[in-house]
Amino acid sequence: MKLENNYIESLGVTIQTATYAPQKGVGEWHIMLHVEPRGQQFADQLARIYAAEDMIIQQPQMQGARYVMKRYFLSDSTNQQPLMRQEPDIAISIIQQQPLDGSKIAAWLYLQSGTTITHEHGMTVCQHNGYRHLWKMGMYSNEGDSAQQTERLLLDYERDLQHFDATLADNCIRTWFFVRDVDTQYAGLVRARRDNFTQQNLTAQTHYISSTGIGGNPADPHAIIQLGCYALTGFEPQQQRYLYAPTHLNPTYEYGVTFERGTLMEYGDRAHVFISGTASINNKGEVVHVGDIIKQTHRMWENVETLLSEAGTTFDDVMHIIVYLRDTADYDTVSQLFAQRFPHIPTVITLAPVCRPTWLIEMECMAVQERENKEFREF
């Protein structure tokens, strides 16, 4: 893996790139874009972000790469999303989670080369070597309370998966739930998700799905929940393994929620590790270091590092990090901590309250590591 940070002075955009591009096989890129505010309105900052995106895809080292998924972190989604361009062939996620560097927008981009990318039944589909990677982002409903919206979104997504002979239980690898006013609305999501999962035989005795449930506002002011999902078909059950880190973390069902701490996907040539939203928690389900942002950050890192280790990986394999903060006043402290420990990993820090009020910070990440698993097909 190769990590690069480049500043495009003409655009005032920093491009943080993590590249996994073997000589043979599928190439993967995770990129974070950060734009200088320059005292400009959103439309001007957006134009510079788009110019950077268009520039990236034209670079010689990106030959054959195509955008699979884009997530935009906005400061005011209701007013800003209508100004954004339509890209129907890409899985687009747009959510109000204000970048805390002073800008109005930041972006996480995921690209691949060497796969066939199409758009079918509302999903971005990447096909290669018998696998189909199914990306669907930006799902929302604007009717009912948080529980009713969660139920409707999951049912609609399950119907979408049927077009690919897939199910939530067998094929969904990763979910993101963004919740308006998470302190009061998260309970409804938890209840509806648990009820739906039980019907799909996703239980404490079977398994759940790696996930992040975090504060974030959809553009529609009546939408409480926004959902994004990644699913996979064509793999063998033994290619998938869930991560628990029992020395540091407890099973989530012990405190009433239903997600996995992390998921390892093994392929013939690499491993993917998806780390769910992780905070400062111990293996009894208790918040650790209440009120101390520095100690919570260090405990969060320790928890994530333990999950990565269980998958046979380290932070050296991480291709992107998303950090969620409850309090904007903690940004300077946290940004310095991350810059010191992870100066080159593509990272974005946003305003997004965590699902427990006493958690000051949460992070998620994804790692990719070269492997040689002769019993599995390559990615």
Helix content: 10-25%
Rg result: 19 Å
Calculate the terminal CA-CA distance, rounded to whole Å. Answer: 16 Å
Instruction: Using the 3D structure, state the CATH architecture of the largest domain.
Output: 2-Layer Sandwich
Uncertain segments? none
Number of domains: 3
Strand order of the largest sheet: 1-2-3-6-4-5
Q: Assess the beta-strand content as a share of residues.
A: 35-45%
Topology order in helix (H) and strand (E) letters: EEEHEHEEEEEHHEHEEEEEHEHEE
Number of helices: 7
Mean pLDDT: 97
**The CATH top-level class label of the largest domain:** Alpha Beta
Helix/strand-derived category reads alpha+beta
Looking at CATH, the homologous superfamily of the largest domain is RutC-like
Shape: globular
Strand segment count:
18
CATH topology of the largest domain: 60s Ribosomal Protein L30, Chain: A
Could you describe the largest sheet, including whether it forms a barrel?
6 strands, mixed
Describe the secondary-structure layout.
Elements: E1 2-8, E2 13-20, E3 27-35, H1 42-57, E4 66-74, H2 77-80, E5 91-96, E6 105-113, E7 116-120, E8 123-128, E9 131-140, H3 146-162, H4 168-171, E10 172-179, H5 182-199, E11 210-215, E12 225-233, E13 240-243, E14 262-266, E15 270-278, H6 293-310, E16 318-325, H7 331-341, E17 347-351, E18 361-370
Parallel strand pairs: 4-5, 10-11, 16-17
Antiparallel strand pairs: 1-2, 2-3, 3-6, 4-6, 7-8, 8-9, 9-12, 10-12, 13-14, 14-15, 15-18, 16-18
Helix pairs in contact: 3-5
Account of the 3D structure:
The chain has helices spanning 42-57, 77-80, 146-162, 168-171, 182-199, 293-310, 331-341; strands at 2-8, 13-20, 27-35, 66-74, 91-96, 105-113, 116-120, 123-128, 131-140, 172-179, 210-215, 225-233, 240-243, 262-266, 270-278, 318-325, 347-351, 361-370. The chain has 379 residues and is α+β, with helices and mostly antiparallel strands. A six-stranded mixed sheet has the order 1-2-3-6-4-5. Strands 7-8-9-12-10-11 form a six-stranded mixed sheet. Strand 7 (116-120) and strand 8 (123-128) form a beta hairpin. Helix 3 packs across helix 5. The chain starts with a strand and ends in a 9-residue tail after the last strand. 50% of the residues are buried. The model has no long low-confidence stretch (mean pLDDT 97).
